[in-house]
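CHAIN AND CONFORMATION:
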Amino acid sequence: MSRFLGVSFSLNMDSIQGLAYGFGVAFSGPNLLACLLGVLIGTLVGILPGIGPIGAMALLIPSTFALGPTTALIMLAGIYYGSMYGGSTTTILINVPGEAASVVTAIDGYQMARKGRGGAALAVSAVGSFVAGTLGVVALMFFAPLLAEAALKFGPPEYFSLTLVGLIFLSQLGRGSALRSFIMVGFGLLLGTVGMEPISGLPRFTLGQLQLAQGVELVPVAMGLYGIGEVLIISERITGIPQMIKVKFRELFPTVAEWKKAFPPMLRGGGVGFFIGLIPGPAAIISTFAAYTLEKKISKHPEEFGQGAIEGVAGPEAANNSATAGAMVPLLALGIPFAPATAMLLGALIIHGVQPGPLLMTQKPEIFWGVVASMYIGNVVLLILNLPLVGIFASILRLPQHLLMGLILLLCLVGTYSVNNSILDIYILIGMGVVGYILRKLKFDLAPVILGLVLGPMLEKTLRQSLFMCRGDITSILYRPITAVLLSAGIAVIVLPHLLPLFRRKEKVSR
């Protein structure tokens, strides 16, 4: 016990020293500017319906080529957690969720605005996001080093199992049916196999195109699916200017009674969000539903939910921001993304020549601790931005859609071509745009494609290494404790949803 406490105390001291070093990195001129720019863009992305943090990061990855990897990751991470703040603004004032994670906020947030308490809802949303986001970063600071130290004992079989189980969890927890998610994961894995075969060095699935020997790039695929696909979908819609409920600055102060009701849900939502962020899947979305359900169940007045309960705003908004910090833990500690947005961050690291994994903290401490420290700074900046500038941000929705969509289309084309100066990438972009449009019309979730593309090469590499280790006998990896537990969890996730209805039927028959 004393040995464990000693290790824990040592890790905590190392974390505090690392954070101090990280603030030195984050407060340097370029990194501070990147943080400010990232959270500002993230706020705008959260406000604009449809684009989302994944599409925004895909659009802006090419613009980071002139930056260092630390600066690039700070900016892209700012877009990720900044979009969670921005989504609540239009959700509350216009009942138009700018981000999927803000859908639950609309239930009570818009009702508060209709009752003249829109300012209070916005203030509680911003403060709840700040409190939970900060708590999430504190937890990230202590959890990630512990997980990274444990991951140093991982071998290829453990990484293979963890990656495989992550894809299985995503398929089960994603939006839509599990079968559709599995199909999308398979499509992403298929794209990831294009290029040079890692052992023999022979080209595969290149269709005679020499440029495809290097594989399918993440940027044109993500830009096509999210950028071009979104432009095509929005071009079909005929929408007018949404009617916005105006809020004056003096109305942004909740009453004492409202603060008392809102503060406990902020803390509970922060805890729920962080731990859900550690689980593979769309953490920001799942955490909001979980936090809302929790608040409604423990409330003494559940009938108020749906009618403008401030707890229904504070809990979900805290949860989705804390979930972003939780999702960063497996990315920074293991080098494995458990969410689509962190898959884009992993892709950015690889593009910048950084090898993610448990050694990132020791080999590239400026990246790890610089990003963690920048998240503290970013949360403070977002709180300052999202209260006094609410009206300005919400009015962005009044921009003509044809101008906005034309700008996105131009950014997609220029950004894709700038990666490799390749016309083939433009063809992939257009092809993925058409595919993304069709899949959206068929109600398929596109996120598993990105994760499949990013994790596919890692899955294949670790599987081949595992087969070499066990001399072709794949069953021998089951005798490794961590691998056995992870694979058992993956099997349980697939099997249990089919077995539970059978047990329920037997219980009904027996009664």
Summary: The longest strand covers residues 195-196.
